[in-house]
Specification:
Layout lengths: L3 H23 L2 H10 L4
Length: 42
């Protein structure tokens, strides 16, 4: 069974990876085009 420190480090790593992926996604031109398309609908 992993220690509490190991679990805490694993969670921190997951959060960091998720943040990186979200920033990568939301900064892409394809995502901006998607938002522009959604903005045309009510």
């Amino acid at each position: 069974m992993p220690s509490k420190a190991d679990v805490k480090a694993w969670k921190a790593q997951l959060v960091a990876q998720a943040e990186q992926q979200i920033l990568k996604l939301t900064d892409s031109d394809q995502f901006k085009q998607y938002l522009n398309t959604l903005g045309k609908f009510h």
